[in-house]
Structures are given as structure tokens and as C-alpha cells.
Amino acid sequence: MGSNKYINEVKIIRRGRHYLTPFTTDHIDEVVELLSKESRRELKLLGHVDIRQAIEEMQKYSECFIARKEGGSFLAVGGLWYDADQDFPQLFAMFSDGIKENFNAMARGSKMLVKFFDTTQSHMSMTILADYEFMLDWASWLGFEAVGVSVNGPNKYVDFVRCNPNRNDVSDKSLRPVTHLKARKDTLAEVKEWIPV
């Protein structure tokens, strides 16, 4: 990937050489080419036969961003999907094959993206394929709490929700709803027991 190709990208959040930029149609070819096999599998399980079409729809209908290291290929694309039948927007993320070599950047970038969305969202949800235990732990680490399991055909998904810790919905602290600031391993372990075999 030529380092000059994306030199003029708008950098909405920057940490060292890593940054987030709005996902545009100019990024679609790169994402389709470098998308990880796990992300491709998940798109297919969701019924997308054509990966390019799925990425184009994501770019068109969601609020999403590219994470990259300056001069390098994209590491992840993620954002919020809004749907009229959901109470809260759905946080999603898909990764490139290069994410394994950039794990620390992915972790920092994930926290940055969640904090960025905290400025506009009181709650967010996530749904993660139960096969991906690492991703389930990642969601808990980001402050999402597992709230149930859903089944789509033969696939099981863990449903998560995150309440924004910076939003005070009630003035009396003792009456405020529980906020999900820290991952609770016991909660995630309990949810893993709910997953039907």
C-alpha cells in the first residue's frame, strides 16, 4: 500500500502514529482486499454472499471509521449501525489480517472509538458470535455487559449492552442505574453457560 495514498485523510482522533478517519467509498477496495478471514466468515454467516456489497452497505448506512497506522494499511473498520427495531445503536468492528501484529493499537483504538461515541450515545449494544471467545472478552473489557444469548440458525450470538458512564440520568446517585465500567469475568462466565450446546 503506498504511503501517500491516504496522506490527506481527515484524522478525527490521533494517538502517536495511529488514527481514526471517516470510512469513505475510497476505502472500500482496501477493506475488501485486506479483510480478515474471521470478518469474512461473520459477514457470510449474517447472510452476505457478496463481501464487497456488504462493505458498500456498511459504508452507506452506518456511522463508521477506519483505524490505521500512518503510512500503513487499515487495521480495523468499526462504528455504529442504527436500526429502527433496536433500542440502542449496534457497535460493530471488522479487522484486517494485520490486526494480530497490531494488537496493542487495536486495544487502544477500541477504547478511543468507544469514548468518541460516548459523546453522543447514552447506550450502545453489541452482538458477537459465541465462537469468538476473544471477542467476547474484548467486549467486556470495553465496558459492555453480556445480557443474553440469541440464536440465528445454527449460530449462537452473545448480546451485550453498555451504559455510558458519563451520562447521569438521575440526580440522586443512590438511584442511578448501574453503570458498566469494568469487565466482570463472572458475568461473562455466566453468559457462556447460557449458550446452548
Verbal overview:
This protein has helices at 28-34, 37-45, 51-61, 103-118, 133-141, 185-194; strands at residues 13-15, 18-22, 62-69, 74-81, 90-95, 123-129, 145-152, 155-163. With 197 residues, it is α+β, with helices and mostly antiparallel strands. It has two domains: 1-79 and 90-121, Aminopeptidase (3-Layer(aba) Sandwich); 122-197. The strands form two sheets. A five-stranded antiparallel sheet has the order 1-2-3-4-5, with helices on both faces. Strand 4 and strand 5 form a beta hairpin. The longest helix has 16 residues, at 103-118.
Order of helices and strands: EEHHHEEEHEHEEH
**At CATH's second level, what is the architecture of the largest domain?**
3-Layer(aba) Sandwich
Name the helicity range.
25-40%
Structural Rg = 17 Å
Shape: globular
Work out the helix count.
6
Number of domains: 2
List keywords for this structure.
197 residues; alpha+beta; Aminopeptidase; 2 domains; five-stranded antiparallel beta sheet; three-stranded antiparallel beta sheet; 6 helices; 8 strands
